[in-house]
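We close this part of the discussion by returning to an individual protein. The amino acid sequence and the backbone structure tokens for this protein are reproduced below:
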Amino acid sequence: MDINNQSRTFRFLYATREKYPTYRVDLTELFSAGLIKKGHAVDWHMQSAEASSFKLLQLNSRERLFLGGALKGKGIGGKLANRCLGLWHDIQLFSRARKKIYDFVQVRDNVLAGYIVGLALKGRGTPFYYWMSFPFPEADLFRAADKEIDLSRLKRAFYRMRGTLLHWLLYRHVLPHTDHIFVQSEQMAKQLAAKGISQERMTPVPMGINLDQVDNTQISRLGNTNWQAKTVLVYMGTMVRVRRIEFLIQMLHLVRKTIPEAILLLVGDAPESDMQRLRDEAQRLGLQEHVIFTGFVSMEEAWAYIKMATVCFSPFRPSPILDVASPTKVIEYMALRRPVVANKNPDQAKVLSESGAGRAVEYCPEAFASEVIHIVENTDELDGKLEAGYEYVRRYRSYAALSQQLEDKYRDLLWLDMR
């Protein structure tokens, strides 16, 4: 990289399907807390999450927001009206993207906005980058076909129609005409490459963690003091039915045959019907006194539960859609120096293998139980692995490191475009 390019700052337009205010940490940490603090400038393009008119907001000296209007109504009429307002907001990207004040324009996960920006920038010389964090068209098609999901015929038809349209638009008219594509994982890059998109035009940017926040948060011990004499197994995350967390209750049933003092903490929440399904499974296996549901808790409290864990879990049900994800639970557990049992999701298997912090196993209760027992019976092996995991997070999966890598990539791309 040219030394003069290393000190160059850039201004860009960033359109995302996320509503404002956004709580997506990869947006706030990589950009607002990362690139923007390094002197770069961004104009955000988002629709309001609450009732609002269209307006331009000056968030700070280097961040502006083109805020799309929204109505208060939550019914079908209100949702339809807000979709129309969002569409109008995206259409305005055509004129905004053509302004010569931007070094590049980037669209995240919004296929229609990507198509509009592609048209606006065709032949104008301003680089167009697309950020794909999730395969939304494929998710629609999967939802339409999955008989386990309780959907009406009308909704299935809607998801099938929308998924087909977005799939055609994304892979025929958006991604082939971008200058570069940022993807969520190496597995996503491989899947896109199988569709004919050059991997040289793709950069994986996985999920990470704010390691400074972890290191600087005072984490107090909590919970029932009787747990100190137990083997505490912890899962943190959503309990919604599609995650199939009953898998871990079945695992506990197997573990307790060898480690009878083991208990399972399920840290998180879900709709009541989904939670009742888990309670019923615990009762069916006679584990109702050994499975503890914490409900929704603050981040600090969740971290406190993790710190007391003997083993933490990151089960990620295998599927073509979820396989391209970049799970954050493994990173969070490793940052808190706890042992992890995870299945062979490509990204978390890569993290555990490269760090030496553990190994990924098959997605079944028996494999998880066997790995838990191995960890508990070989605690003398843990110290080095836990430190290796923390160091790996610091070097490769902290948002400080990821933001620097992203800044370097943007500079490389802009330097190549200016040659």
In short: The mean pLDDT is 93. Residues 211-397 form a domain with the Rossmann fold fold (CATH 3.40.50.2000).
